[in-house]
Amino acid sequence: MAEVDWELLARHAQDAMGRAYAPYSSFPVGAAALLDDGRIVSGCNVENASYGLTLCAECTMVGALQMGGGGKIAAFYCVDGAGAVLMPCGRCRQLLYEFRAPGMVLMTSHGVRTMDEVLPDAFGPEHL
Ligand code: THU
């Protein structure tokens, strides 16, 4: 995979954040992924009056990835309502793991990390 354009990925995440439906938490989130074929997919959180049914931004992003023909994630960026880097929640790390390309990297509050660093000893399709 060529060099990641983190600024471009951040912009896609911020645009997605602007589409969030977060009337209950007032915490909009945007997520964007660079796929191994160069495409970028994104998603936003979509909340629900039945709070536990909330979809994280990563959920809708992964839905968009699959609906767009599938693919593997080379790099990932997630932002909060202020546009600051946000760590994906534990459940969403698992969602990302499923679609990771070898060597997948994420922008984190501590800089660029690998998927294996943010979800060590992960359970995955290889265990089924
Ligand atoms: N949220 C995400 O969209 N992704 C995460 O990784 C963390 C949390 C959303 C869910 C909810 O709508 C709001 O942030 C507050 O938890």
Description of the molecule:
It is a single chain. This protein is an alpha+beta fold. Strand 1 and strand 2 form a beta hairpin. The relative contact order is 0.18. The protein binds tetrahydrodeoxyuridine. Tetrahydrodeoxyuridine binds next to helix 2. The site of tetrahydrodeoxyuridine has 13 residues, from helix 2.
The order of strands across the largest sheet is: 2-1-3-4-5
Mean pLDDT: 97
Give a quick account of the main beta sheet: strands, pairing sense, barrel closure. 5 strands, mixed
Query: Helix fraction?
Result: 25-40%
Global structural class: alpha+beta
Count of helical regions: 4
Give the overall shape: globular
Name the beta content range.
15-25%
N-to-C series of helices and strands: HEEHEHEEH
Radius of gyration: 14 Å
The stretches of 5 or more residues where confidence is low (pLDDT under 50) are none
Bound compounds? tetrahydrodeoxyuridine
CA-to-CA gap between the ends? 28 Å
Strand runs, count: 5
Essential attributes:
about 130 residues, alpha+beta, five-stranded mixed beta sheet, 4 helices, binds tetrahydrodeoxyuridine
Please specify the SSE layout and strand pairing.
Layout lengths: L5 H12 L12 E6 L4 E5 L12 H11 L5 E7 L10 H9 L1 E9 L2 E4 H4 L10
Parallel strand pairs: 3-4
Antiparallel strand pairs: 1-2, 1-3, 4-5
The structure holds tetrahydrodeoxyuridine.
